[in-house]
Structure to design on (461 residues):
């Protein structure tokens, strides 16, 4: 298609885990829209324009290669792209504040504000501005105020269109979503903007799956969806502690409970707790909102989801310590998996970060292996990783180890030759399966002492 024949120009500000995959899918599904992803990081944009994309996500490379240079572009020329755009997605990072009021809880809105100022400065034609980043409820107000302040008389219409993609399945979640949510002002111009976005999604999403709401419901729904998902994980993890105390088996309990169609089977895998860039941040955000509106009991309810998650990681480390004769000094521990979940190299808030730090405090030597997350693991443990080796080959990583600690359920770990691993480990050989991922009975028969989460251990000692 000729460059000038595009029916609309979309710009996405922020070329990260959300912006990149989302725009790759939109570009593939809407070849008559020009989609440009911009970022302040030159390095990131260069990576998006190369064969080594900056993030690992199944199916992403294929989607990028199909559209890049045709209707999908990556650029650092933010001002020019904003000026030319009809529709702007805001997909910059919204971390938790580490300073001042709300530190540790509230969202740090500095990147959003910078972005809003930049949009305002570079706009001389009306634009639809879409919140894609997770933001506190009523942030659209802030965007509205900034964009319409001062002399610039350009009209902006704000929409909220939260992403519900999970990492590792981002492309599938975008291409076959459970629902698409679009919040708008309940005004004629708000509805017109909303319909523009509905038009884009309805290229591949059935209309009954496109939910439209007011702006505030949309913003809140994103936080609530993540809070409910995280709450399920904390619920089953709390029960895993009870299972360990009573010899019940958490997998059996989850199965029995999940067969009730009102409860459902998904998201009931006990483990070392949730990680990732969303759950913790969104719950903290929800807690902060509740406190702001003086709903302290409700804030405490949601805070408990995080407490259980923290507690789960602590319990896991305590179990390792207790089992390995209460000392890890100079013991070698092979850590299998560092990413916060499989099929991603992302380690943001990964339980592995906390667990490895705790093991290092006990003076253990760690050899960490992960198919995609070693570069991030190195950054996460930078400065405290004197006793750490990062080894790609799991067989090498586990040579001479006293224990194997599985923290991410990569499918390739199930296919390993555990007899070979056992033969190369110190005895007694321990496996702590933080994700209940391996065949415990088989490992026990090989000779391992096996410690799953929320199930009786299988031991020879
Ligand atoms: C999540 C939401 O699922 C997604 O809808 C939203 O858009 C972004 O946040 P993500 O963080 O990428 O996605 O991954 P998710 O699959 O939800 O897993 C989050 C964490 O929960 C992982 O650490 C995972 O290991 C853990 N988890 C998940 C469990 O411990 N048990 C489970 O049963 C499911
Ligand atoms: P997410 O998981 O929300 O996508 P990431 O950290 O992966 O978060 O990506 C956010 C991206 O937004 C980063 O690449 C960052 O460089 C970019 N970014 C942050 N602030 C701005 C800004 N003011 N203008 C353009 N890009 C920005």
């Amino acid at each position: 298609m000729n460059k000038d024949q595009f029916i609309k120009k979309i710009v996405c500000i922020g070329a990260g885990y959300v912006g990149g995959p989302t725009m790759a899918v939109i570009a593939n599904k809407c070849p008559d829209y020009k989609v440009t992803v911009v970022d302040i990081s030159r390095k990131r944009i260069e990576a998006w324009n190369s064969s080594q994309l900056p993030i690992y996500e199944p199916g992403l490379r294929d989607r990028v290669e199909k559209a890049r240079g045709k209707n999908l572009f990556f650029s650092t020329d933010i001002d020019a792209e904003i000026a030319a755009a009809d529709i702007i997605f805001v997909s910059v990072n919204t971390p938790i504040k580490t300073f001042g009021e709300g530190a540790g809880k509230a969202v740090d809105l500095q990147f959003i504000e910078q972005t809003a100022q930049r949009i305002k400065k570079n706009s001389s034609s009306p634009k639809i501005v879409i919140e894609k980043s997770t933001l506190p409820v009523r942030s659209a107000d802030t965007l509205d105020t900034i964009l319409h302040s001062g002399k610039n008389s350009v009209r902006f219409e704000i929409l909220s269109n939260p992403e519900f993609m999970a990492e590792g399945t981002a492309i599938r979640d975008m291409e076959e979503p459970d629902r698409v949510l679009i919040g708008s002002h309940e005004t004629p111009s708000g509805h017109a903007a909303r319909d523009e976005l509905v038009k884009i999604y309805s290229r591949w999403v059935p209309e009954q799956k496109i939910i439209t709401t007011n702006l505030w419901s949309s913003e809140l729904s994103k936080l609530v969806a993540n809070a409910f998902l995280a709450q399920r994980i904390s619920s089953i993890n709390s029960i895993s502690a009870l299972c360990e105390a009573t010899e019940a088996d958490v997998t059996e309990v989850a199965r029995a409970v999940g067969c009730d169609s009102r409860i459902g089977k998904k998201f009931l895998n006990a483990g070392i707790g949730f990680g990732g860039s969303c759950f913790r941040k969104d719950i903290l955000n929800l807690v902060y909102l509740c406190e702001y509106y003086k709903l302290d009991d409700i804030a405490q309810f949601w805070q408990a989801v995080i407490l259980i998650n923290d507690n789960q990681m602590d319990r896991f480390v305590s179990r390792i310590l207790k089992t390995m004769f209460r000392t890890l000094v100079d013991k070698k521990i092979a850590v299998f998996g560092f990413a916060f979940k499989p099929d991603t190299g992302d380690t943001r808030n990964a339980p592995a970060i906390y667990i490895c730090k705790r093991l290092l405090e006990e003076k253990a030597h760690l050899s960490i292996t992960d198919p995609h997350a070693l570069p991030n693991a190195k950054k996460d443990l930078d400065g405290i990783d004197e006793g750490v080796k990062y080894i790609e080959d799991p067989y090498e990583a586990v040579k001479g180890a006293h224990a194997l600690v599985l923290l991410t359920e990569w499918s390739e770990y199930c296919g390993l030759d555990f007899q070979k691993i056992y033969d190369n480990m110190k005895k007694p050989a321990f496996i702590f399966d933080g994700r209940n991922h391996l065949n415990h009975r088989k490992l026990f028969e090989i000779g391992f002492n096996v410690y799953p989460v929320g199930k009786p251990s299988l031991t020879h000692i």
